[in-house]
Design brief:
Length: about 325
């Protein structure tokens, strides 16, 4: 492959490799994508795809790495094209990342946590780029960007929930203000409560933790409060066919009227019936025990480090 930098040309589709860390997924079953494929079949690709020259680290083969245009590249593949127009641009890895970020800034809701990681990576490696400058490039305020970058504080398993759309960005940002062990404790509430309610809970807990640290005391333990959230649709469908859970709850609690039965059904659907609440309590206690164990481990490590440093100081004096 020989490609002049900053040039327009046609290349084999196979010469272009997509970025494995793309900031957006291609939803190949969406109406927009299917329409794009049909358009490419009839008219081809009108706007060239931006690529940069790369070298395979294992084979040292030259190839073209996709910078911008994943939707069109995938559409061309689905349309059966052999060649595509590309714009070979002369940018390094960080500049390519910046291009991806700016061009994808309107689609941050697709993979918010991954987008936040990319922003953080760009700020880290491009020392001359400040938060206000990047915010201006994205058409956002510095305050918005600071808040969005909070997603980088989340552990990987919670980031995945954000990118999957199971955890809202707003609740994830509130969760990120808590220490990691507290994030685990509050995760169920973050997944199920509306932002206005969860933000207040997270803020109250964050204030308590800061106050305890300032006063040199242990934080007040978080008390168990059952959280309503819907049963999964598959579980509801199965119960609609079998009625086994309903029969058991009616027998257990002695629902004697249609109204009692209706109330019990609502409680079960929202995980607020006695059995579901008890399951929540057990999970809460397990998480609480795990958090306490981790807290004691951190304390033991801190004490051991203090003893080690004291011994080193004594040895230096001697």
């Amino acid at each position: 492959m020989a490609a002049d930098k900053d040039s327009l040309r046609r290349v084999s589709l196979q010469e272009v490799r997509p970025n494995p860390a793309a900031l957006r997924d291609v939803k190949t079953d969406s109406t927009d994508f299917l329409q794009l494929v049909e358009s490419i079949k009839s008219k081809g690709i009108i706007l060239p795809i931006a690529v940069r020259e790369e070298e395979d680290k294992d084979t040292h083969d030259k190839y073209l790495a996709l910078v911008d245009g994943l939707q069109r590249w995938t559409g061309a593949r689905e349309a059966g094209l052999d060649e595509i127009p590309v714009h070979v641009i002369d940018v390094d890895e960080i500049e390519a990342l910046e291009t991806q970020i700016v061009t994808n800034s309107h689609f941050i809701q697709t993979k918010p946590a991954q987008f936040s990681e990319a922003l953080n990576r760009l700020l880290k490696f491009k020392e001359t780029l400040t938060v206000p400058m990047l915010a201006q490039n994205l058409g956002k305020s510095p305050a918005w960007l600071d808040k969005f970058l909070k997603l980088n504080k989340l552990p990987e398993d919670i980031k995945s929930l954000v990118d999957e759309g199971r955890l809202t960005v707003t609740n994830a940002q509130a969760l990120a203000d808590l220490p990691e062990h507290e994030m685990k404790t509050h995760l169920d509430q973050a997944l199920t409560l509306p932002p206005q309610q969860f933000i207040a809970i997270a803020k109250e807990r964050s204030n308590e933790l800061r106050s305890a640290a300032k006063q040199g005391r242990e934080p007040r333990p978080k008390t168990f409060v059952p959280t309503p959230f819907f049963q999964g649709m598959a579980t509801i469908r199965n119960e609609a066919k079998s009625l086994n859970i309903g029969k058991g709850l009616i027998q257990q609690l002695g629902a004697s009227s249609p109204l009692d039965g209706w109330q019990l059904a609502l409680d079960w659907v929202t995980n607020m019936d006695p059995n579901s609440v008890e399951a929540q309590r057990v999970k809460y206690e397990q998480q609480k025990t795990e958090n306490e164990k981790k807290r004691q481990e951190r304390r033991a490590e801190k004490e051991a480090k203090s003893r080690e440093e004291a011994a080193e100081r004594m040895a230096a004096i001697a």
